[in-house]
Structures
1.
Amino acid sequence: MSGAFTKSTARNIFYGGSVFFFLLLVVLTFDTMKSLPKRDHRENITPQVVLGKKLWEDHNCIGCHTLMGEGAYFAPELANVYDRFGQSTEAIVAFIQSRPAEGVPGRRSMPQFNMSTEELEAVAAFLKWTSEIDDANWPPNIQG
């Protein structure tokens, strides 16, 4: 091999690298498409979970909390809140109900949304459903 780096060599490296990474993309795409159906649990969606998701969006919970790493980082991650509260939807409902109407003095905290018991149970059902998603062990610790 000569010490000169020619146009032909550069072109071959470019085309070879392009083909390699395109094939890698195709393989990873097929692997992902093969594994996603095993992780799906849409059959567990109930009307209560749908209502909880709607309330989650209406109250802009994602504006402060993260859910599976998506959202704001002001408040705790909620993808594992069901596990953090001892796998109890009642504990989640009680925590949300316990928020003071005026917040905690001296700091910004979660407001009291004054939801009905049915709405609170729906939010808790949504968070329970979210915790059952196969999220490849994210977040990596129970605290979120």
Note: The mean pLDDT is 88.
2.
Amino acid sequence: MNKARNFILLLLLASPDIAVFGQAEVYTNDPASGTSDDLYAIEICERGITSTLAYISQNDSAWGLTREVKRKVLNHEQRTDLVLVWSSILDYFAQLDYVMQANRNFYVEKDDEVIAEKFSNYYLAFLIQYRYALEFLDMAENNKTINVILNEANPENGLDKNTYKKFKFHFLNVMIATHFVALNAINMETGHKYDELRGQKIDQAVKYIYGMGRGRGIRLTFANAFKIMNDAAFTLWYPFQKGIAEVMADRKVWRHDKYLISSEDIEAISKQLQPGDIILQRREWALTNVGIPGFWTHSAIFIGSPDDRRSLFSGDEISLWVREQGDESGDYEQLLEKAYPAAYGSSVAPPGSKDQLRVMEALKPGVVLKSLEKSLTCDGVAVLRPRISNREKAIAIYRAFSYYGRPYDFNFDFQTDSSIVCSELIYKSYEPSTGYQGVTFATIELAGRVVASPNHMARQFDRQYGTDQQQLDFVLFYDGHEKLGKALPGTIDSFRESWARPDWYIFIQGEN
């Protein structure tokens, strides 16, 4: 290896760690985490970023992002939408950060070589980040009021103060430009051969970045650098960077095969559950979290076992409702089995099996039934109980059964029933209707889609607690503690504030 390449590698590997923008989380089907997992994560992130940027482009006039507009005041609805979009972008960038961190040791010093797979994953993730960061900044800088909006602290969506300012500094400075040149030099010297699709992605990103450098990108970089140099109060790195280093110091992988909720925790939780309970979950390092605003990113409904339901749904009121549905027996379980035989058959464990499927949730394959033990393979869990009659809980579960087998809604659109997302299953199972009180969950508009996220359900509980509007009761909260490597029982007060936690909470947990 020649001296020039040695210098480039030293410069690259000695440069500061990539700043983590939000929640650096990953999901893998294989605990060994092969290259395919990283490419899958990169693809998901690129699709998410491009979709989000397309939505921003659709709103460029409304948000004052056209070049002829230098400053436009956004109304409340526009500001809320913009912040949610910004939070999603940071989540995707965070996942790309993880890919880079996982592949940053691509140079083997003793063998004096570059590991091709690790380098290509690092290189591609870096290029996608850099390329789309420049594209986003090129749009955002057209309206100076956006600087103010995106620099405000927004704990509900995991945003710290001055997030946009830090984002700009990271992507508009000479260090990342040097990083870019160094990676390109290594790529050219090693002569890596890429598949056609990956090769196209790399070529397009490199051309775009160089194109920006010849024009607006250079002006943006130096204008921002001058401002930063004169801002003595500016802090470059996120507050949790030290925390992430401490958490990762004694781990070879990022907990692919371990969760903080233990089997003992699950056993204790199972004794407190009732059919109809709403389960909120948090999984650290999960790709499924990316693009979902807030701390709580998944939800499920506890349907219980047939015996659980018989115990709770045995009153005359429920028998009357069953007869109104056309089943003269008045037996709720018999109605479920007749109306939804596939779902019911799947929910009943085989003789002698302890793997009773008592939880219904929407996952990547669609609406499925899972055992409590598998559903609660997570790092944090909370359970809320609707303040409605047992009759209405029975109706909610009956509705939930009707969605069994429907595909996952990758469009996150609550206005359609043909496909379902996790919190949509909860929302529609408890949706109020004529003669049915149910539970009213507040919705938000995210990138043009109406949704009620799991985190907003937690927020709504907090806002309504102790008032006449309270619709849910607190059952339990197990709070994952990364540094301790386990979950601890939490109080209602700690749960009430959990929705406002930043995505990087695990790295600052216990510091105060």
Note: The two ends are 49 Å apart (CA to CA).
3.
Amino acid sequence: MKLLVSALEHSANVHLTSLTKEFKDDVELIGIFDKNLGNPIVDLQSLAIMGIVDALKKLRYFFKLADEMLELAQDADKVLLIDSSGFNLPLAKKIKKKYPDKEIIYYILPQAWAWKKNVYLFLLEP
């Protein structure tokens, strides 16, 4: 089975590594993920962004990357999108529009947000 994966962040790849250990069938990963899990289409280091200026500079790159993922979806049996909603939700919409019968799994990592009186923000992940 070919599984198109979009795991852009380190935490997503930690969960993906655990998932791959549970696969019973022969699963080939294609797409964006840590190079320790196979042969991704990009190096995760090239996706690192720091600040708004860096994000604006890489905007065209991310649009091209989404188009490449859309084309890879044609040959995939299933699509697994992990977190990174800014990239993955628009990608899911494009895939669903072009390939309406394609199964898309959107895996959101567990998070809890809490606000205190003085606007302290905490992010808890397992």
Note: The first helix runs from residue 10 to 22.
